[in-house]
From TrEMBL:
Protein's recorded name: Erythritol transport system substrate-binding protein
Domain of life: Bacteria
Domain Periplasmic binding protein stretches: 57-308
Source organism (scientific name): Thermoanaerobacterium butyriciformans
Record region (Disordered): 29-49
Compartment(s) of residence: Cell envelope
Record-linked PROSITE patterns: PROKAR_LIPOPROTEIN
Pfam families associated with the record: Peripla_BP_4
Amino acid sequence: MKKTVKYLAVLMALLMVVVIFSGCGTQQNQGNSNSSSANTQTSNSTSTNTTNSKKLIVIITPSHDNPFFKTEADVAEATAKQLGYDTLVLSHDDDPTKQTQEFDTAISRKAAAIICDNAGADATVAAVKKAKDAGIPTFLIDREINQTGLAISQIVSNNSQGAKLVAQEFVKLMGEKGNYVELLGKESDTNAAVRSTGFHSVLDQYPELKMVAQQTANWDQNEAYTKMESILQAHSDIKGVICGNDTMAVGAYAALKAAGKSDVIVVGFDGSNDVRDSILSDGIKATAMQPAAKIAEMAVEQADQYIKTGSTGKPEKQLVDCVLITKDNASKLNNFSLSQ
């Protein structure tokens, strides 16, 4: 009897050990199962975020009231979206302070790149440097800054070449003689000085061409109208007006027409649709087309290349030639692009 009891006690002890170890094994397996599930969820979440997140390209230009800048912004935005980026389009209205705030927005949004037609050759340097220090590359279009090594690309029209084309046409239209007026763009914009210098490299070769007035109208149509009205009071005998951009040319021509002087020769620079229409209706006589659409597209494509490879394969400073627009080819011009 004692042996039987002893045998049962040993058997009970063995059964308890088996139960305990079975429970531990089950608990451990459950823990591993939960851990594996958690790892699977994290992996799926990361994969989903990578798939759904698009990199951001911020596009900053002057006011879209000017069709040139609107074309830049529209083409840059369309190209970026086509390449798979999200976009944020902003306008600094030629205000360096506002532009700085917009660069700060791009930095805070962790943009992949900034495309910018800037608010001043000197005033923009600090903003581009700040973006660079934050690891965000800047691609400048239309207007340069007065420092190299900060922006990845500075893609601009060949303003000197374009200005010479316009000046040569102006000389021909003027018959190489007569009094003329020059309207200048913003003094803070290097393009204003480059174009004026290009004009005079041609005009100053003709001693019978006399500049009787030279005033700044700040690229603005209304200001050009007002300046032209004032100039006419002192120089009613002018034969021609050469303008640093098309917007000023439109304003100057409107003032001349209102004064009964629509026969005065007016030329511009940009290649806007407004001036195209005026040329075709025998108003303004000529302009130089800046390939704004092409330049904006180039900048975004180079940004995409840089984001993907760390290089554009291009020099920082790039010039794109302008095209003279007269009545002969104005019908082919649309939105700063010339059809073949």
